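User: Show me a protein chain along with its predicted structure.
Assistant: Here is one chain, sequence first, then structure tokens.
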Amino acid sequence: MSLANKLAEERRARLAAERLLELKQAELFAANRKLGNHAQKLSNEIVETRAEVAMVRGENQRVKTELGVANEKIQIAERRLWHSIETIQDGFAFFDADNRMIVANRAYLAVFEDLEEVQPGITYPRILQLLTEEGIVNIGEELPAEWRARMQDRWQQDDPKPMEIQLWNGEHVRIFDRRGPTGDIVSLALNITASVRYEEQLREARERAEAANRAKSAFLANMSHEIRTPMNGVVGMADLLTETDLDGDQRLFVDTIKNSGEALLVIINDVLDYSKIDADRLILHPETFDLEKTLHEIVMLLQPSAQAKGLTLKIDYDMQLPTRVIADPGRIRQIVTNLMGNAVKFTLNGHVHLRVSGARETETECQLCITVEDTGIGIAADKIDHVFGEFNQVEDDRNRQFEGTGLGLAITKRLVELMDGKIWVTSNEGSGSCFGFSVTLPIARGCSGQSEMLEASVQRILVMEEASDQHESSLVSQIKALGGMPIQYSDEVELTVEFLEALSLVVLDLDSENPTFDRVTNMLDKIACDTPLLLLSQSSKTPNRIEKTKVHTLQRPYTRAALFDTIASAAVPREPDKVVAKVSRTALPKVLLAEDNRTNQLVFRKMVSNMDIELAVANNGFEAVAAFETDQPDVIFMDISMPGMDGKEATARIRALEGAGPNVPIIAVTAHAMDGDREMIIEAGLTDYLTKPLRKDALIEKLTIYCPQLQLAS
């Protein structure tokens, strides 16, 4: 090989070695760079790991600290809770699902005294067994096994009801058990001995209060009887004196005695009613009655006192409303009488208007609104909220002439509320007041408002009355409701003979002082028309200056039944009255009065002195029974309170003597007027009931009812 070749070959080898070295250096550099990157990554991971380790160590330390604090708080809470449970006087225990005691406080364990067995771990059935075996619980006459079985059954319920047990020392414990969702039971035993003793004291206090209330009621009843007995003589004799010939002064004295006696009776009744209401002893006695008739009776009773003051009493009963309802008629009468009486008392001039309105709520019930409007002195605004209070009056120094107990409106309000009604008052001082109340009452069966209608031949009726601002007057509405065809006229020049002869009746509702009154009546007389004339006036007497023969008078206020009867009898020609032959009788009705009070005997004799009866008097129950056996009276008036044998015992003996035969009517005449007295007397066998002071009209009514022959003889 030549040198040149060798040099070339060496040069090629050196170049190859250099290229290989460069390649290896490049690889080494890449490896170093990769290793450096990896080392940097590892370094970063080491730093992060160290930070995480430090954080974990800090968190671990914080958790340990918080756990320590929480554990300390739990221990404190548990200690406080247990201290609280131990402090309470009531027993507390906790049982697991296997009925084993987990824990119990000292109050719970104290019941078992020194029984070391009663501690956590004991079962509930064993506790029941110890309660009966050791005599800790008083189970009465019940067998121990039955008592434990009953208690175990209660324990097994999902929601055991609280129960009361009595311990051997007389203490009372009420047990409350509550089962948890896992079957655990919390048992709480409350010592209710103080409550039981307090309830016993309340019961004894209630019994004493009821005894005192009964004593008060008995006292009121006795006082009522004792007061009414002499008042019977005062009012009865005064009533009889008014029927004798008296001069002016004597009549004034008698009227004063009578009015004072009746005022005293009103006060007695108010006190008795209020005491019964205050003690919740007043009971309503609903029955079927005619409300419209009752209200008219009240107005008629107040008519004399109203006329004496120159007042006009008006009544407006909605013709669309039924008249027969079911309620306590005595209490309805008392309510309306109180309101009407106050209106008349506090009204010096003008009128008192009683208005009945309302609507049917159902076929069997109607809501009634009864208002009393007056033109009296009114009520001051600062007193209107107190008029229904006890012993409150609207009087001041200006009007102290009005008397009263101040109980009337309080009783009225309580009576209305007892009927589930509402009462109210509106007033303007000096211009009058309006008292009203509303009640919902059942409608009497078969009552549909107006049951009778005028016949077709008497429907054309001419109505002449005072000018009215109303489109249709109340009188016209009433006649329409009765089936009539009223024709309303106010100008008498339109009257002709032909027109009047086509009418069935002319109704004249004009004040006798009205000039039209004389002109109309004179014209009717002048044309000699046979059409009857019906006068509506405050008096039942026909004015003397009216010459027309066919004149009928109806006194205001009147009921729809009275209006119907009067129109029917006046407008329809009737046959001449038939003479009713009197029934002859061989003996007078025998009436026996059993009364121990001489004054009351005298009052009774004077009241029946004008009647065709044979009166016998018995001074006590023994004489009454003897008189019944010997004389066989037709009717007996029996006093209830008599010495030796009272009226109820005498009645019982008379009923025993009668046997199954016809019973003689025995009417109680008594001063007993408390609630329930009537029922008690009727249950004793008496037929009917009259209260003292005895009223002549009430006595005559009973005589005519129970002595029918007396009606024919009178």
